[in-house]
Amino acid sequence: MQLIRKTSRWAAAVACGMLAAAALPGAAARAADSAPPVPDRYRLQKLDWQPCSGGELECAPMAVPRDWYHPGAGPGLTVEVSRHRAADPSKRRGVLMMAAGGPGASGLKRPATLTGLSPKLAAAYDVVSFDQRGVGASTNVVCSDQDKVDALFTSGDLRDRSPRAIDATFDRARDFVADCERASGGLLPYLTTDQAVHDMDLYRSLLGVDKVSYYGPSYATVLGAYYATEFPRRVDRVVLDSTVDFTRGWESFLAGQPMSFQRRFEQDFLPWLAKNDAAYHQGRTPAEAEASYERLRAALRDRPLDLDGTTVTPNQLDVAATNAMYTANGGFQTLAAQLVLLEDPGAASADARRTAAQQLRHSMGANFFADFTAVTCGETPWKRDRRYWVNESAQATRVNPLAGARELTFAAICSNWPRTRAPQIEVTGKGLPPVLMLNATHDPAAYYEGALRAHRALAGSRLITVPDGDHGQFQNGNACADAHVEDYLLDGALPAQDTGCPGVPLPGPAARG
């Protein structure tokens, strides 16, 4: 999931009898069963495949109902879909569907990356993907402009717990929610994982296949788990990589992330930074490296830095640090270089300052954040007690400040979001083939404790545990993880029980400059 960097998202209450019925406990695991027949204008459409920009894939617009529980009512939406045809038709075994993380990330071009890195899968599958409703080339959801989104995360110091700072956080959050309601054109109630998996099943139908296999990382694990639960007879082989805990809802999941980002920072990054003190000069022990980080952060709080037109605040430093935690190779080196540059920007080259300014300018893209909040706020009933969130976020800020300082921003938005009527899907694994899951023990976004809960809930699944911290294991330099995924998708081979793979070694320091 691209939570915090790469996933609170999710919707105005709408009188919807079918949705309300689907949300009842007896119907929780099978919301698809209560959906009415699909109108011919969707069911019988022909996908007009054309070369995507870049030329590696084919793309097509797919018309979908705005509300799958009232599919004949109102105007439809567009979901842009893509495909990479199997390179060897004689070896083709079916369709492998992909999706993107976030919520809010684009999945349209991802088949090109997957097939480029796995010729075996490229030969055996038509690899297909899409931009989820609300995202990218599909019908977009619109909330605030980029300046307002930036202000949510960069104004003041989010560690500041004064009444004035807390009031400002809630004021910005309410303003953002009001913008979403004004600008979204009534789309917010329909940007849910449940609605999206119905789009996925229409796509399967239009491809002319009875079943699809599936690979999804991060938030796409929720899409995959929901799709398999609602359409169990439509899935063949399912791989969930870096699983978001779908057992407790977004409120619980996001509240757990400050711990996992702090763990990754303290147990992986700071020791790595200390080990490479000769390159970065931030301290020879993890404690000294952390003290260097806090000194720089305090300096930016007292005097924000104008870096080539980007005003760098302590919050932006924290954002840069959380972003770097996702992947050690590249992420750790980038953050270390930023720390050195921000300490003495005058000693850096003009190109280095310009690059750092671009990296630090925006905490989260406005389009991404619009869909992120639409999904995470709009499909989970959030507590609406301001005092609860002030107290909860104060504790998170004290114990896990790296990401905990931003918890109140997410919670203030979601606790002011229109109340949801989205069905709550219970994932059990009933009626499914065994599902292959992969997770790192120090994953900062899809934390291991939540992945274990999802694994226990998904009966019959197999979990590959990797003792490192990268978010996303497949095609990330881990040959063992790659082999497990390819063996399963190509031959149906699964380990007899849960097992593990060695982690990828941490990188060395980046070359100077």
Question: Which features would summarize this protein structure in a list?
Answer:
513 residues; alpha/beta; ten-stranded mixed beta sheet; two-stranded antiparallel sheet; 12 strands
How many separate helices? Answer: 20
Computed CA radius of gyration, to the nearest angstrom: 23 Å
Which spans of ≥5 residues are poorly predicted at pLDDT below 50? 1-30
Strand share of the residues? Answer: 5-15%
Shape: globular
Count of DSSP strands: 12
Helix content: 40-55%
Q: What's the story with the biggest beta sheet?
A: 10 strands, mixed
Termini separation comes to 31 Å
Spatial order of the strands in the main sheet? 1-2-3-5-4-6-7-10-11-12
Quick check: average pLDDT? 92
Which structural category do the helix and sheet elements fall into? alpha/beta
Question: Outline of this structure?
Answer:
The chain has 513 residues and is of the alpha/beta class.
